[in-house]
Amino acid sequence: MRAIAAAALLAAALPSSLLQAKTPLLPATAAAISGDFAECPSFFANGTPPAVQPLPRLRALCYDAFAVLHNGSTKTPMFVAQRLNRALVEDADEKRSNRFYADARLPRAERAELEDYKRSGYSRGHMAPAGDMPTPQAMAQSFSLANMVPQSIEQNGGPWARIEQDTRRYARRAQGDVFIITGPVYQGEEHSVGANHVRVPSHLFKLVYDAQTHRAWAHWQANADHATVTRPISYQELVRRTGIEFLPGIQVR
């Protein structure tokens, strides 16, 4: 399908000789991925996960309120998928647990540990926000490091938090389900934190798809203190920048 450009998502996880190759995208339930999303298809529009490049060390993880495709090469999620609607947003008033933990389902060599973030200068940035969680158990699960990236402290608490709040407001007004996919992008010079070399993303994205109207848009923001909320980009532009078909088989307006 699409070639991944040199600055594409997770480029560092591929040999340079493959960066320009036209590698077929595979559904995130393919054999190249450890596990699948069979236990949590409801987090994906039409029950179909995104189509991704067949990278090594990809593992599918299901949680109560979100799903993670984890990349063991970067020690971060490749994407995190959620389903929101009015009822779920209205239930999302749980107290934050703030008990971060490493997910034991991931091999030790493929995961971040709590020590990696200490004195790193970065926050443990949720991809599926704690503020979206509808139950105490879902809230606790959202603090898995598999749901985190090293994120600018100012961005996390400022412009990115605004995007998360705006997304909840939209889901509360929507007439049905809204599907959200959030993740990191790695461009430019490689930077990591901790003994396990947890990759620091250059940018973050949040895709919003309204299943009733078939409209989709994406927020794209630098993982930096100077980040600001800007006009969303189109779904097609997000696919071009990342090389991922987030909504395979869906005609997006």
Automatic annotation (TrEMBL):
Location of the active site: H126
Keyword Metal-binding among record annotations: yes
Domain named DNA/RNA non-specific endonuclease/pyrophosphatase/phosphodiesterase: residues: 62-253
Matches recorded under InterPro entries: DNA/RNA_non-sp_Endonuclease_sf, Endo_G_ENPP1-like_dom, ENPP1-3/EXOG-like_nuc-like, His-Me_finger_sf, Non-specific_endonuclease
Domain ENPP1-3/EXOG-like endonuclease/phosphodiesterase: from-to ranges: 63-253
Residues that, per the record, bind Mg(2+): N156
Keyword tags: Endonuclease, Hydrolase, Metal-binding, Nuclease, Signal
Keyword Acetylation appears in the UniProt entry: no
Superkingdom per UniProt: Bacteria
Coiled coil regions in record: none
UniProt signal peptide: 1-21
GO MF term (any one): nucleic acid binding
Protein name: DNA/RNA non-specific endonuclease
Organism: Comamonas terrigena
